[in-house]
Structure formats: structure tokens, C-alpha cells
């Protein structure tokens, strides 16, 4: 893994007009949770035109499958599927998720992912904390359950401030 | 004898750690940052750990 720069990945995806939602712990961090993560998880819109735009940006990012010694590159057939594409890029790990949770797609989630302004004109959809908590509860794996207290406390503090 | 009103009791201080052991002060500090700064702070910390591990020859230790 090289030097991670998730903001640069998002900047390039936005410049390439890729429709996506930031999910996972990067979303938790953007929403204020003090947790560490080493990858950027996105749910991308699986419409063919969006997948074509995503593929172009992934090519620019030199994205390859990170668990495959052949360093295969993602193809359109992978990105239109509901599966998870776990990639290594020039700016760190990027997971492109066709769906999350119980088959939830970009269209299912976008209303629960208000846009956030990351500065310099970069605006991205980021899953809200209640939905992120719901997804972690549904996943129910030890690694998901472990972060729930921090996410719930972050939500409580956010609500207290609003 | 004066008519001075007693000083208002200071507002109770919010606890820094909740019942689950979550560091609420860290959450407050994160919420005080802009979103991009939050992500940059975590990435910077992670990158530093990765760099230290590389300097240590990526050795695993128990």
C-alpha cells in the first residue's frame, strides 16, 4: 500500500463526473467519528454511462485488484455487478461496491447520503450516520460491531450540536 | 450585608469518556474540523503508521 490520499481519489472521481456515495468508515470519519481506516469505500451508480466514467478514472488511478497477484484491472462487467471490487490505486485502497447491506444500491441510498463540501469545489454524497450505523448493525460481524459505540456516540454529539 | 446575587453554578462539565469507553473529547475535536480535514487527519495518521512499519521492515510481532 502506498501513501493514502482518499481526498485525491474523491477529487478525481468527482472530476470524472462519477456518481457515487461514500460509505464505510471513511464516511464515518467525514461525519466526525474518530476512527482509523485504510480504505475508501464507495457505492457507485451502476448505470452503464456512470460505469464507463468510473472505469476511465480507475485507469487514471492505475487501479488493480489488490488481492490478485496478476494485478488484474477491473472491467465493465465487474462494475455493473452488485459485487465488491477491492482495488489498490496510486492513492491508496479503494473499494467499489455495487451494493451494500441487504442489496442496497446507489439509488436506494442516495436519499440517505446528504452531500458534503470537502473544499475547493469538491462536493460528494456521504452516507449519513444513522444509515451507516444501520448497515454496521445488519452486517453484524465483529469488526462492524466494534465500531458501533463510537458511531453512536458521534451521532449523539452531532445531534446535540444541531 | 450586600444584595449581591450568588454566582450562578457553573454548567456541569460534559464527561470526556462515555460508559462504553468512547473518547467523547476526540469526537468533539473531530466535529470541530472541516470534513476534509477529518479525512486528512486520519489518512496522515495511518500513513505515519504504515511508514513506521516499513522502516521496521514490515516485520510482524506478537
Question: What can you see in these coordinates?
Answer:
The complex is a heterodimer of chains A (about 160) and B (about 60). Helices cover about 40% and strands about 20% of the residues of chain A. Chain A has helices spanning about 5-15, 25-30, 50-60, 75-80, 105-110, 130-140, 140-145, 150-160, and strands at about 20-25, 40-45, 65, 85-90, 90-95, 115, 125. Chain A has a 7-stranded mixed sheet with strand order 3-4-5-2-1-7-6. In chain A, strand 6 (about 115) and strand 7 (about 125) form a beta hairpin. In chain A, helix 6 runs antiparallel to helix 8. Chain A starts with 5 loop residues before the first helix and ends with a helix. The model of chain A has no long low-confidence stretch (mean pLDDT about 95). Chain B has about 60 residues and is mainly α. The chains are: A alpha/beta (about 160), B mainly alpha (about 60). The interface of A and B includes residues 5, 6, 122, 126 and 154 of A.
Which shape of chain B, going by the Cα principal axes? Answer: elongated
Structural class of chain B: mainly alpha
Q: Indicate the structural class of chain A.
A: alpha/beta
Helical run tally of chain B = 2
What does the radius of gyration of chain B come to? 22 Å
Shape of chain A: globular
**Mean pLDDT figure of chain B:** 84
Distance between the termini of chain A: 38 Å
Tally of individual helices of chain A: 8
Largest interface, counted with CB-CB under 8 A? Answer: A-B, 31 and 24 residues
Radius of gyration of chain A in whole Å, from Cα?
15 Å
Runs of chain A in which pLDDT lies below 50 for 5 or more consecutive residues are none
Task: Provide the helix percentage of chain A.
Answer: 40-55%
| Major sheet details of chain A | 7 strands, mixed
**Number of distinct beta strands of chain A:** 7
